[in-house]
């Protein structure tokens, strides 16, 4: 839960500034993913939420691929800040 409080502080800063950046979009998808994951731990047979989670994961993966191609430094910084794994490169 400490991670969620840190995320909420970051989101308040970002919310005031630029919502259209790739970093903010990845951040908002990550918070949605964490919320859905905790929901699915309780409700294992909620298949519509599982589908929504997979769609959000795909969107985040595409945004991270775009960011890694455009700016590797910003990508690495975002990955470390949000504590998520790197995407697999082909």
TrEMBL record:
It is found in: Plastid, Chloroplast. InterPro entries: Ribosomal_uS15, Ribosomal_uS15_bac-type, uS15_NS1_RNA-bd_sf. GO terms for biological process: translation. Its main location: plastid. GO terms for cellular component: chloroplast; ribonucleoprotein complex; ribosome. Pfam families: Ribosomal_S15 (PF00312). NCBIfam families: S15_bact. SMART domains: Ribosomal_S15. It comes from Thymus mongolicus. One of its GO terms (molecular function) is structural constituent of ribosome. It comes from the Eukaryota. Belongs to the universal ribosomal protein uS15 family. Signal peptide: none annotated. Part of the 30S ribosomal subunit. This is Small ribosomal subunit protein uS15c. The gene is rps15. Keywords: Chloroplast, Plastid, Ribonucleoprotein, Ribosomal protein.
């Amino acid at each position: 839960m400490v991670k969620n409080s840190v995320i909420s502080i970051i989101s308040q800063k970002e919310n005031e500034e630029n919502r259209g950046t790739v970093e903010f979009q990845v951040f908002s998808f990550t918070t949605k993913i964490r919320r859905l994951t905790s929901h699915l731990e309780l409700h294992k047979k909620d298949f519509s939420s599982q589908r929504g989670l997979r769609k959000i994961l795909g969107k985040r993966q595409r945004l991270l691929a775009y960011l890694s191609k455009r700016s590797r430094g910003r990508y690495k910084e975002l990955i470390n800040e949000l504590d998520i794994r790197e995407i697999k490169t082909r």
